[in-house]
Backbone:
């Protein structure tokens, strides 16, 4: 059976509020689990069919769902092709657009905001700012140094930070994983989660509050179900460019970044085969609002 990504929810009823985070961390450590959310009455997975098992035998249930979908012809095109996982997507963005080291004083992300209220110029490695590095390692941003960033921030660590402190922390893992969420994830890594979420909400017609909750989840699925995905990606790229141009007017300190930002936005368009070839053939994996434990999104 092809190795695909499944979005799956399994009922539970024994978790106390105190146990939820422990349960989530244990499940995140299982082979094949991309992300996991645990509530008092359910476990919500984004997982691949390499998912080995947990105490409840969810792997066999997940595999059965893929088999039944394939037999029914639902999303069959997705079964035949490999689509990017969230980690795949952000890793490609990091390796394509984030330089190794830069310490431009005009880039506000290069400054550490210390716990004592002061700031200092440090620099950024592979898109990881001093503040992001400090959050990931639970240290004072003032203790972050150029040597520390240069010596430890690999592409893998940058992706780890993006996945934990952007994708999971801000609930991107609860959304239908699709090309426009790929774009929103990149916007969030470049310009902050609030900006990426608000742009996505504007695109899909959700309340623009900068937070991902049930209303945004539903609005996204209804939008994707009712709109051409390639046209939607182009619209999102146009929105990004309009924003970047608005904050990089000639004569401002951000003017020097305009070309790079707009090139990055244009890169995530269907007309760019390097980006779109990974998504070409993707289709809506389940009806909007469906609670079925399905969600063909990718072979890995």
Residues:
């Amino acid at each position: 059976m092809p190795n695909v990504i499944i979005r799956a929810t399994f009922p539970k009823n024994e978790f106390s509020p105190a146990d939820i985070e422990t349960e989530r961390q244990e499940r995140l450590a299982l082979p094949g689990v991309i992300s996991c959310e645990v509530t008092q009455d359910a476990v919500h997975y984004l997982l691949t069919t390499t998912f080995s098992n947990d105490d409840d035998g969810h792997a066999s249930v997940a595999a059965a769902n893929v088999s039944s979908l394939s037999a029914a012809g639902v999303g069959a095109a997705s079964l035949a092709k490999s689509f990017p996982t969230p980690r795949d997507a952000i890793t490609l963005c990091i390796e394509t657009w984030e330089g190794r080291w830069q310490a431009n004083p005009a880039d506000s992300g290069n400054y550490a905001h210390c716990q004592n209220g002061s700031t200092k110029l440090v620099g950024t490695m592979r898109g990881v700012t001093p503040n992001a590095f400090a959050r990931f390692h639970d240290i004072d941003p003032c203790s972050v140094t150029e040597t520390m960033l240069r010596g430890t921030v690999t592409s893998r660590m940058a992706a780890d930070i993006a996945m934990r402190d952007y994708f999971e922390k801000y609930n991107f893992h609860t959304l239908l994983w699709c090309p426009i969420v790929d774009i929103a994830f990149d916007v969030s890594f470049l310009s902050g989660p609030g900006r990426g979420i608000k742009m996505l909400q504007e695109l899909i017609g959700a309340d623009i509050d900068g937070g991902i909750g049930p209303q945004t989840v539903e609005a996204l699925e209804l939008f994707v179900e009712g709109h051409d995905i390639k046209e939607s990606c182009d619209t999102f790229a146009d929105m990004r460019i309009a924003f970047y141009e608005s904050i990089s007017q000639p004569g401002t300190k951000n003017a020097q970044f305009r070309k790079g930002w707009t090139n990055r936005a244009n890169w995530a368009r269907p007309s760019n085969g390097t980006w779109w070839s990974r998504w070409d053939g993707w289709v809506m994996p389940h009806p909007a609002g469906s609670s079925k434990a399905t969600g063909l999104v990718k072979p890995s």
